[in-house]
Amino acid sequence: VQLQASGGGLVQAGGSLRLSCAASGSVSSGDRMSWYRQAPGKEREFVASITGVGVQAIAASLSDRFSISRDNVKNTIYLQMNSLKLEDTAVYYCKVSAWWGQGTQVTVSS
Q: Which of 29, 30, 62, 95 would be a feasible disulfide site paired with 34, CB 3.0-4.6 Å?
């Protein structure tokens, strides 16, 4: 399985970004796909996940600003991040089963 995350970048506080993670290989629509993030000096933390039939889980502290979606045809998940805050600065990783993507950097500036 290969996971290719993209869409990160530098954004001002209050702005929005949409991350994508495309999966290739032995990934089926039945697999749960997830986003995690790791800020400098902190442990990696769960952000959101979605099953092939659209059942979602989002970290409670982020659910008012972040949303997750999925395109089963493209084996791709998306993370829409709105009203970004400085503390959202992190490397964002996608995950399917035991496989991790390489991460995409999100930097929120003041």
A: 95
What residue has token string 């092939």? 52
4, 100 in Cβ contact below 8 A? no
Let me know: does 93 contact 85? Beta carbons within 8 Å: no
- The structure tokens 């992190």 sit at 90
Residue-wise pLDDT tens digits, 50-78? 999 999 999 999 999 999 999 999 999 99
Q: Which of 2, 11, 1 is nearest to 80 (CA)?
A: 11
**CA–CA separation, 40 and 22 (whole Å):** 25
51 CB contacts (<8 Å, ≥6 apart)?
30, 31, 32
Is 79:8 a contact under the CB 8 Å cutoff?
Answer: no
> Cα(26)–Cα(34) distance, rounded to whole angstroms?
16
**Which amino acid is it at 62?**
L
**Tokens 């209050």, residue?**
14
| Cβ(103)–Cβ(6) below 8 Å | no
